[in-house]
Amino acid sequence: MEKIKTLIIGSGPAGYTAAIYAARADLNPLLYTGMEPGGQLTTTTEVDNFPGYPKGVDGPTMMVELQQQAERFGTEVRIGHVNRVDFSKEKGGIHSVYVEDSTVIQSQTVIIATGATAKYLGLESEQRLRGGGVSACAVCDGFFYKDQEVAIVGGGDTAAEEATYLANICKKVTMLVRKDHMRASKAMQHRVSRTANIDLRYHTQIEEVLGDQVVEGIRMVNNKTGAKEEIAVTGLFIAIGHEPNTAIFKGQLDMDDMGYLITKGKRTETNLPGVFASGDVQDKEYRQAVTAAGTGCMAALDAERYLQSLE
Ligand code: NDP
C-alpha cells in the first residue's frame, strides 16, 4: 500500500498537463497511464491546431514530449490500469485506488483523466470481424491495406482526417456519411473533397460487413432511397466518435446520461471532495487536445487548493 498526495489516472493531454502542474506544486504526483499510454492522440497523425507548433506535430511525438515534461518536474509515470476505486465521501478522507488488483494506492487527491474510447456501429458482422479487417484506428492499421480498397464510416473530423490518411496509402477509400452533410470542420471537408481517390457517399450506412474470417466487402444502404449496394473492400474503418471511460466510477461519481463525469460549474471538482476530473472524460462539447490540457491544468490547481484547505 502506498500513501501519496496526488494520483493522476490517464495519460492524454489532460493527465500529463495535470502532472506538470502538480509536480511543479510539489505534490509529487503518481500517474498511471491506463491501457493506451498517451491516449487518443497516439492514434492520430498530424496535430495542426495545438498552439505553439507552427509546423504541426504528430500525435505520438507530442505525447512523448508531454510525458518527458511531466517527468522532468518529478512525476512518476507508471504503465498500469486502474480497475477499481473506493473514494472517500469526507473532506480530507483518503481515496483508495486499485491497480490491476495487486497494488493499492491511497491518495488524498485523485485527478481523473481517463478520456474516451472509440465507438463501434454494433453490427454482429462488424464485431465478428474486429481484428480481421475492421478497425477503429486508421493510423494504427492503415498500413496493412496498402494499395487496397477500404471503406470508412463517419462524418466528423476523425473520419475526415483518417480518410485522407488512408487515401495516401490505399488505392481507394469509400467514405460513408449517414446525413446529407459532414460534421467535420470546413477545412477537413475541403481536404476530403480535394482528394481524388475518396469516394464520398452521403445518406449512406452499412447494413452488413461481408466476409467469414476477414473483411471482403460491405453492403451499404442509402437511407433516403433504400437502395442497397455491395462493394468489395478489404478494410473497414469505424470513425464515429467516442465513449467516456467512466465504468469504474459508476455509483460513486455523478455522470450525465451519456456517462460523462459531471464537474461543478467551471471547476474540475466532482461530487466527492478531493476527486477532480479533466479532459474528454468530462467534456463532450469541445474534446480538443488543447482544451483537455487546459482542464488538466485546472484540476491540478484545484487539487493543490484543496490540499491547502486541509492544512
Ligand atoms: P464526432 O462526434 O465529431 O463525429 C462522429 C461522426 O460519426 C458524425 O459524423 C456522426 O454522424 C457519425 N456517426 C455517429 N454514430 C454513427 C453511426 N452509428 N453510424 C454512422 N455514423 C455515425 O466524432 P469525431 O471522433 O470525429 O471527433 C470528436 C471530436 O474531436 C470533435 O470535436 C472533433 O472536432 C475533434 N477532432 C479534432 C481533430 C483535429 O482538430 N485535428 C481530429 C479529430 C477529431 P452525425 O453527424 O449524423 O451524428
Describe the fold and architecture.
- The chain has 311 residues and is of the alpha/beta class.
- The chain is built from 7 helices and 19 strands.
- Strands 1, 2, 5, 6, 7, 8 and 19 form a 7-stranded mixed β-sheet that branches. A 5-stranded parallel β-sheet has the order 10-17-11-12-13, covered by helices on one side.
- Strand 6 (82-86) and strand 7 form a beta hairpin.
- The two termini are 24 Å apart.
- Bound molecules: NADPH dihydro-nicotinamide-adenine-dinucleotide phosphate.
- NADPH dihydro-nicotinamide-adenine-dinucleotide phosphate is lined by residues 47, 49, 121, 153-159, 161, 178-179, 183, 205, 240-242, 287.
Q: Hetero groups bound?
A: NADPH dihydro-nicotinamide-adenine-dinucleotide phosphate
- End-to-end Cα distance, whole Å, is 24 Å
**Count of runs of 4 or more consecutive helical residues:** 7
User: Any idea what the shape is?
Assistant: elongated
Rg (C-alpha, Å): 21 Å
Q: What is the strand tally? A: 19
Provide the succession of SSEs.
EHEEEHEEEEEHEHEHEHEEEEEEEH
The average pLDDT score comes to 95
- The helicity comes to 25-40%
Query: How much beta, percentage-wise?
Result: 25-35%
Supply the helix-strand structural class. Answer: alpha/beta
Give the low-pLDDT segments: none
The biggest beta sheet is recorded as: 7 strands, mixed
